[in-house]
Design brief:
Strand content: under 5%
Number of strands: 0
Order of helices and strands: HHHH
Radius of gyration: 13 Å
CATH class: Mainly Alpha
Structural class: mainly alpha
Shape: globular
């Protein structure tokens, strides 16, 4: 089982574990996209605070898509401003909303 997946048969992972996994995957992916270490919180603005351009944003979103086995519609990406927005969007997509 990959990080962030829920095993329905055993029920061994609850929603909070899934949320924590999504958050950690996003934080890890962002950290690896940055040229130098920066403190990242859910209030961190992806473009303004981290200085990522559109290509860098697309690169890390594609990595998150691969790790979570989801597809993020372009209109959703345009709505995301903060790390918290990104976490919420990924949670909704994983939940099928």
């Amino acid at each position: 089982m990959r990080a962030g997946e829920f095993n329905q048969e055993s029920g061994s992972r609850g929603v909070s574990a899934l949320v924590g996994d999504i958050r950690e995957i996003i934080f890890e992916t962002l950290r690896s996209s940055l040229p130098k270490p920066v403190e990242i919180t859910e209030k961190t603005h992806i473009v303004e605070d981290l200085g990522l351009d559109s290509v860098a944003v697309m690169d890390f979103v594609m990595e998150i898509e691969d790790r979570l086995d989801i597809s993020v519609p372009l209109d959703k990406i345009a709505e995301i401003e903060t790390v918290g927005d990104l976490i919420a969007a990924m949670q909704n997509l994983r939940a099928g909303s």
